[in-house]
Amino acid sequence: xxxxxxxxxxxxxxxPVFMIILWCMHCLRTTIAEWDVTLGLPFAVxxxxxxxxxxxxxxxxxxxxxxxxxxxxxxxxCQDLNLVFAWARRVFWTVDPADPEQFVEWPYPxxxxxxxxxxxxxxxxxxxxxxxxxxxxxxxxxxKAHVKQNHADYNAFLVARRSELPSVPAPSPLDTKEEKAAxxxxxxxxxxxxxxxxxxxxxxxxxxxxxVSQVVREAQDDRDSDNDSNVSIGxxxxxxxxxxxxPLPLEEI
Length: 253
Hints:
Elements: E1 12-18, H1 25-34, E2 48-51, H2 58-62, H3 75-92, E3 95-96, E4 99-103, H4 110-137, H5 144-163, H6 177-186, H7 198-221, H8 235-243
Antiparallel strand pairs: 1-2, 3-4
């Protein structure tokens, strides 16, 4: 058995939890490295918590390594990445009612979905690069002893950042699911102008938006009006309809 492989069994959950926001950075990088965009499926971080009492995800436990969540000051950016992925899945991957194993081809054909999946993967890589830059800025990489010493400074940084967050209204039993999600999101920290990684992450979100917009517009304009009945609207109009509810603001830099 290869060195570093865990051999002891651990009590497992009946229903493993697929991490949506608090995934492990090792899992993010593994998914980026192994994801096959040619399959045309939406990119998703494959991080699973499958044990009843464990500090490690399934992958890290199997590799006898330590889980590394995204840096605390970027958990809001994790949330934003998830919002973009959820939006893309909802918009582009509509299951065909006539065949649950297929996706509808109108208004977004398979080639558009494949390109959107590639943009999703690129955005995930952009997040990874930005997160690493943030860690280096705060000396959270390298020798474990040195990293431990730097955690006090980082915790002070987090306290200061949290003090700058806008106040959040008190919860109400009448709050909708969307209002609860918005309140949760506002409590999470994000990169700000001047932070290492901020420009990279902001450009990545802009590149995703622009790339998806262009693919949708060009695919619609390229349809053959003589042989395709789905050309009642032009590329510009379909682009506008598609991107109108994009979930993130695009900051100016």
